[in-house]
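hiii so um. not sure if this is the right channel but i have a protein structure encoded as tokens and i wanna go backwards to a sequence. like what aa goes where. can anyone help
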């Protein structure tokens, strides 16, 4: 089934590399032209530990961490979000404001990981991810005050670990760090995202919504 069929509505996909300014500008332009303006935007692309498994040096000890991998993660996770926000915000202003933007961070942009839960796993937590996701929190708050006068709300979603066919040992280890005792389901994140995009959150801006099962409350 197509995405449009699954959603029961029309949709359009545009491929873009969010580290490339010209591609982000083109993608946002296509969306704004197709829908006669832009009233919502989400920046969610990121390089994660699981996505870097194929790169043998992606989980090197911090003392030996490769600069090229650090820069690549920052380029996608933080600079990519900057480009999406800049181009989307410009389109939103041109559409008259009254819009909502959500930048996706991570619980590891708010708190430090427990490195012990990664013992025996092929992937690890790594500093570039946490640093990039913490940067998104700062960018969110800055943009919320910058665009408030234009009627553009900017908020941040900070998901906790989300189950995606993880190794049972990892899922169990991670769950011991969560008050609710489990990883998130994807549907729980999408519901929170829809809330931040919708008018149900019309008086919320500059905030970080941690959907983490209580992990950051310990």
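sure thing!! here u go:
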């Amino acid at each position: 089934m197509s995405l449009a069929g699954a959603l029961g509505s029309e949709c359009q996909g545009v491929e873009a590399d969010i580290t490339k300014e010209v591609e982000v500008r083109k993608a946002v332009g296509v969306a704004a032209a197709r829908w006669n303006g832009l009233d919502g935007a989400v920046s969610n692309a990121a390089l994660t530990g699981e996505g870097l498994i194929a790169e043998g040096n992606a989980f090197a000890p911090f003392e030996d961490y490769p600069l090229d991998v650090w820069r690549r993660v920052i380029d996608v996770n933080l600079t990519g979000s900057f480009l999406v926000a800049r181009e989307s915000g410009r389109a939103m202003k041109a559409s008259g404001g009254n819009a909502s933007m959500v930048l996706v961070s991570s619980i590891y942009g708010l708190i430090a990981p427990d490195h012990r839960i990664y013992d025996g796993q092929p992937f690890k937590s790594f500093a570039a991810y946490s640093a990039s996701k913490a940067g998104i929190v700062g960018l969110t708050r800055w943009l919320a005050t910058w665009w408030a006068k234009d009627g553009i709300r900017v908020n941040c979603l900070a998901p906790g670990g989300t189950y995606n066919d993880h190794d049972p040992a990892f899922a169990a280890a991670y769950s011991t760090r969560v008050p609710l005792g489990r990883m998130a389901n994807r549907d729980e994140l999408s519901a929170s995202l829809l809330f931040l995009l919708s008018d149900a959150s019309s008086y919320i801006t500059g905030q970080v919504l941690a959907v983490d099962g209580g992990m950051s409350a310990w």
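oh and The chain has a mean pLDDT of 93.
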